[in-house]
Amino acid sequence: MTDKSNDKHQQRQQKVKEQVDARVAAAQDVKGIFQVITGNGKGKSTSGFGVVARCVGHGKKAAVCQFIKGTWECGERNLLQGAGVEFAVMNTGFTWDTQNKEADTAAAQATWQESKRMLADSSIDLVLLDELTYMVTYGYIDLNEVVSALNNRPPMQSVIITGRAAHRTLTDLADTVSEVRNVKHAFDSGIKALEGFDY
Ligand code: ATP
Ligand code: MG
Question: Region Disordered: start and end of each range (predicted)?
């Protein structure tokens, strides 16, 4: 790099730094953050669990509700339960197969009661509601109840909801919304879900 282009580079970087510093200084609110991670691409739950790990790594308390469609083992659960993270898991491995709406609703509701307890507990810094979007879509959990629990949670508590096709009401309410786009996925070329990578 010539001296001249280096000068230009430094000037540009200085400008960027000033703009970023100004925006950092302008962000004054301190409150829990509500994030929705949605979209068809891979990386929603793993992103949510990444924040749980981050939270625990700072000595804070996190809790997880999994509204998952199976009973398969979950690598994150194996690790994070050992680090003191409470998990509430919907056990519907069989009923999902049989499409038993009544049993599915009961299972979703049972896990939702745990979620509500977590969302009212000010000792919990972060609540991850993994795959909750589907429960709202199928009508197993009432959207208004979710909104009310989110709005009434302790002010410093953060919440992450993951799952495809998040309801517009949830994305409107969220402080941060990330949509993971599917560019390609190994499954499409016939590669099986891999332990330690996909679950
Ligand atoms: P991950 O848990 O890996 O972050 P996710 O939460 O974004 O994935 P889900 O819709 O919850 O995605 O699906 C969970 C499982 O389905 C994972 O094993 C994941 O690899 C797989 N999966 C995710 N996206 C796709 C896709 N676009 N095509 C096929 N399989 C997918
Ligand atoms: Mg997921």
Answer: 1-20
